[in-house]
Amino acid sequence: MGKNIVVCCDGTGNQIEKNLSNVLKLFRVCRKNDEQCVYYNAGIGTIGSSDAWARYRQNTKAVFELATGYGLDGDILAPYDFICRNFQEGDEIFLFGFSRGAYTVRALAGFIHMIGLLPVDQLNIANYALRAYKQASYEGDFTVPWHFAKVSGSKPARIKFLGVWDTVASVIVPRPDRFIPQLLTLPYTRRNPSVEVFRHAMAIDENRRMFRLNRWEEPQPFVKNPFDRKAEPVSQDIKQVWFAGCHSDIGGGYPEEESGLAKYPLDWMLREAIAHGLNVNPATRNYIVLGKARMGSKVRYTKPDHLADAHNSLTAGWRPLEYFPKSAKWMEWTRRKFAGMYLPQAEPRVIGGSSRKPIIHKSAVDRKNGSDYDPENFPTDFDTES
């Protein structure tokens, strides 16, 4: 029996400090031993600083990186190197991410799907392999990846579990047919037949234009060995669930005493991952996630609370961006159009719109039924997830 390889990638603006994201809390809850090796990547723009000017520069850089995908290569290659150096036949790969970190692990999974895992002695060409992946002309274009596999001896690997909180971002990619690079979604970041189980926690109340949701397509197939053209696909195990709150009410990062809402998507993700083989410390989970007191500890963690105060992410620094024109082809909510453009003005996310009913977490339903919480995008027809 193999071991678990767990990769945790945080989002823009999160870092190792007192305000822990759900990614970092999951990292802390995971057991680290011979049966499970765990990796944490703080992500882009996340080096903490107490200096106000340094934080301003860091946040400005983070916004640029969020908009363009700049810096994504290093965030993909670092965990890829970790996986390649630790993977053995029979191991299970678990990937977790929040925000831009969610897009990072989805791109990492796409990279592994197309290229496979390089031998340790060939990791010096990983950056060239990543470039080939990013420049694939379409999904299913395996000409260059198969060449890499043949030359380098890379091996296929399935992703056992891909769990993300509120995925955002696309990236600027050079196009061989155009002089100016374009903002594109990387191959296999919306569909990936190498992923066996996919879980996505999504924010009902996030309205910022820079944080539009990057959804996973469903349904879609799972193929255990993507390099085998004769492999028979089965149905991929997918759940995408909506939770009350803004972006960081879903992925965490606010002060602990303000994290009552964020505990629901964290607990849900952990329960889903545990059901598929993730190994956690129950006592640490009870302490950090469920807010149960730990004997001898002065630190207190907040319990899940569906009536906890939600945050307004559209602060003064973000609001001016809502009044810059945007192409009408990206419009999600009713707005006035002019010359093919419109002003986003904090447009709500559309919940539903696919062939499947949207899934709303019970905590959000309880919040709506037990308070004045009544977002305009809350659907009337949905399934409930506990």
Automatic annotation (TrEMBL):
* Residue stretches making up the T6SS Phospholipase effector Tle1-like catalytic domain: 3-272
Task: Give me the ranges of the annotated region Disordered.
Answer: 357-386
InterPro entries from the UniProt entry: Tle1-like_cat
Q: What is this protein called?
A: T6SS Phospholipase effector Tle1-like catalytic domain-containing protein
The organism named in the record is Roseibium aggregatum (strain ATCC 25650 / DSM 13394 / JCM 20685 / NBRC 16684 / NCIMB 2208 / IAM 12614 / B1)
